[in-house]
Amino acid sequence: MADDADAEETPTTLRHRIVLAAAGLLENDGLDAMSTRAVAARAGVPPPTIFRVFGDKDGLLEALGEYGFETYLRAKSRLPRSDDPVQDLRDAWDLHVRFGLGHPAYYTLVYGLPRPGHLSRAGQEAVTELQAMVTRVAAAGRLRMSVERAAALMHSAGMGTIFTMISTPPELRDPEAADVARDMIIAAITTPPVNGSAAQASPGTAGAAMALRAALGREGTTALSTAERHLLLDWLNRMADARPGPPAQG
Prior knowledge:
By secondary structure, the chain is mainly α. Helix content is 70%, strand content 3%.
């Protein structure tokens, strides 16, 4: 009977039914219960159907991570943009922390099972959104380093903070830990505004380099060949990420 029902369903409907079954298993019993046999039983399909639809268990987990992160990514993409991109970055951190603590099973699924050189599709989309927000900070001349380095630092600090809080019993958690970590990482990757104005900043070499990079990406240019453009971007990133040298003498 299961084979007959399987044959009558469209691939999209069947895939969605299996993902929903996996989601219920994950939310009720945790990641350790996520065997293909258990998911198949909950979805009412033969175990080989999992492999036919998703290729392997990793394919199923990728789809499940995307399902779990869908609401978070939608909320992140809808965060209002203010005139202060650094404040917007702070708001994005707070949203990320709320999601991680509110949905620890999905967060662990996406970020807690690292494979060398691989990031899940849901994780990649989250990083892409973060890099876009950091690029806005760069365009304002308020970035201390390259977009990639700043996004990577913020991403890793956020994951470390959330996993530490997840692993700590709720009654022992420091409610201000995430805010302290946020303020430290924001201070490390951005420069303060001038005279309290977020619209005006003293960029320095790194800020100026990243502001130029953001402008080139926003406006485009026909003055450079593709090879020259890649070389210029490499130079700008190296300038932004270089450690300050000793002060000039004389």
